[in-house]
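User: Good morning. I'm curious how 2-amino-3-ketobutyric acid would be positioned relative to this chain. Could you predict the structure with it bound?
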Amino acid sequence: MPPKVLVTGSAGQIGAELVPHLRSFYGDANVVAAVHKAAGPPSLNDGPVITLDTDDPDAVASAVRDTGADTVYHLAALLSATGEKDPQLAWKVNMDGLRNVLEASRKGGVSRVFWPSSIGAFGPDAPRKDAPQNAPLNPTTIYGVTKVAGELLCNYYFVKYGLDVRCLRYPGLISNVTPPGGGTTDYAVEIFYEAIRKGSYSCFLREDTVLPMMYMPDALKATVLIMEADPSRVIRHLGYNLAAFSFSAGELAAEIRKRIPGFRVSYAPDSRQKIADSWPMSIDDSEARKDWGWSPGYDLQGMVSDMLTKLKARLALR
Ligand code: AKB
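Assistant: Good morning! Here's the predicted structure, ligand included:
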């Protein structure tokens, strides 16, 4: 029997691709996409869609009950740059939403919950290279604070109630389907759109800024892998470090320029630079590899080729 799945934040960068991905093997009817303000891509309508404000505990409880979900992917969240603009809202959306989902899940008989943590959980006290699983976190953004507190809350629900919550610390995610909104790593997606449309891009981070990144197909693969792993293989219910590759903004620009000759990039760092400088440049994900068999499929070159091919086709259709 396939699981009955509820995905919050389905119109967001991850949800817009995770929902069709899960439906491709669990069946359209078994994956309910919950959206809030944004409608999301038309493909969400291939299966059930509901409107849900995860800030509302009663609405979350009803959604879990009415959909009969036994598995919840709780993706609704604010990202790092948006969070710095309104820290109170970031706390409300990221923390109250998570608490409501965890409470509704334990009371509503949900057996498994997925929650995305991030490299934003790290702060300046973590090693900048190959930040290990158990590095000191101590983030200096409200986004990071919600990621650390959220990981602790997920682990608490596992320890206290036996709710099987699984978390990944995603790197910056690069996708050709839905643009991200409000993150520090968003430049690594915007740059592709501008390279194709205009042949030039003004980057909001410095040229030498190196951050951990991942192509969306790998993020989907990791998400399903950890969610389907036998419980004996999921040793930690705090966030697992997850990595694919790291590059600087300049290295990404150079890789795109190999395929779009003459592509010009200027650099005008803004407030997001400070956030990027507080995060590690690379991540050690050996525990995820050892515990549940994670390995990425894309490197920088493979990601850039695939992004340009898919995005050119998508933009030509418009
Ligand atoms: C952001 O930049 O805020 C996110 C993240 C790394 O969690 N993409």
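The radius of gyration is 19 Å. The chain has eleven helices and twelve strands.
Let me know if you'd like a different ligand tried.
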